[in-house]
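Sample intake sheet
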Amino acid sequence: MTSLALGPSPAAVAEEASLAALLRCCVREVAGPRGQVWHAEPYVLLRVADTLLRVRTHGGLALRFEGRPEWLELGCWQPLSADRLVGLVEIELGGANEEFAAQVGASRDAMTALLAARRDARPPADPWLASEQELVLGHPFHPSPKARDGGGWLRYAPEAHASFPLRLLGVRHDVLAEAGDTGTLDELGPVPDGYSALPAHPWQLDLLAAELAAPLADGRLIDLGRGSRMAVPTSSVRTVYEPAIDRCLKFSLDVRITNCVRKNSWYELAGAVELTRRLRPVFEELSAGFPGTRWLPEPGYRSADLGTRLLEGLGVIIRASPWSVCRPGVTPLLSGALAVSAAPPADPVRWWRAYVERVAPPVLDAYLSHGVVLEPHLQNVLIGVDAAGQPVEAIFRDLEGTKLVVGRHDLSGVPGRVAEALTYDAGGGWDRVVYCLMVNHLAEIAAWIAGAGPTRELWAVAGEVLAGYAATRGRPRPLSDLLAGAPLPAKANLSVRWARSADRCAGYVPVANPLAVLS
């Protein structure tokens, strides 16, 4: 059972995490691009809104902090608070976003509530599901990593070790909308003749109550009550594991969580099935070339054809479970959980080499050889470990972020809006791959393994793995540039939140490539 009784209070931990996340954003997106970051050992100093800040750091690109950040006031260093930093950011960026301070505060409040709830909650016995529920503090480079709209969310929060039965609806056949392989949903429970089973997230139904009243009253939908088993939410909040059918189900909440409104748009429902069909032969080749490569297909979706709002709002995407794709004796664990909750391996260099070998080459080859942009950030990759805890498999998931490179796939038979949502141009696709793989993922895992020590030896090993793969492909230009130390693209989460733009519109800022000192 999780217990924080002997440690800092939930409010204190939430304040520290909120401050650290926003300060990292300032280093990367505000002060850094303006040349206002410099090192004065043992500190990193930066200037925001003409105010000098300092903090001790380690972890290289992951930018982990030691001790409390400070600001200089009348020649004396004072403890920095998250609220003060918010004010400095607002001044620096022109004060044009009246929502920003509230979003940072809401994120901090959510962390406090989650940490308090975990004190008396029991994590799942399943090690995979337990790892899914470890991301209490959220994205380390996001200004409001746990911000979420709407109320009533805590009872459904994975970070609070929630579990709950799904609701089961019946959809009359004349208004049934579905594609792909959906038969597994019919195993969730008996439904009357003329209807098909449609699982629903309880929070989703609360949010759609007004729109559901009419179809429930006239019989186009029927409420069949609660499911027979407790479903377990995974790290993405709206995707749950349903043990009754051994599937993950991705629901449509239509709630903003961090950057994105989390819903299954109609074109994303169709796109998941289309991508699953196209990616099967790709992953067969990747698995043959890189043993241990796995993926979680999304073979079907089901909803109700009751107008766009309910088509999207009730839409559920079926996804394979990780246990169903791992070979016997292999335990899947969320990569993001390793970076925040697990003890570093006893033989860190050997473990790291195996980890990079499992994760990096198939991601790069998907892009270079197949024109497929995977999104291998820490929440989209599960690492399969053997009985000794050694990485032996990498499981890639979430087709919403997976794209096809324009010009390398025939999409002539795909509806225009669906095709648009499925594609990146070549440059944008490469930036996404490199950001997710190098900056979001490997940098965080390297910092976890190294602790307060340097990460140089780990990056030397990663460079060897990447160079070995590059040699098998004739050292294509993108890989040559990467190995030569070209700056890496880092997603600008603060900038996109400040501009209140869609996540797909997020830009990048250049950050130092840890392979540069090795070339």
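Comment: The first strand starts at residue 37 and ends at 40. Confidence is low (pLDDT under 50) at residues 1-5.
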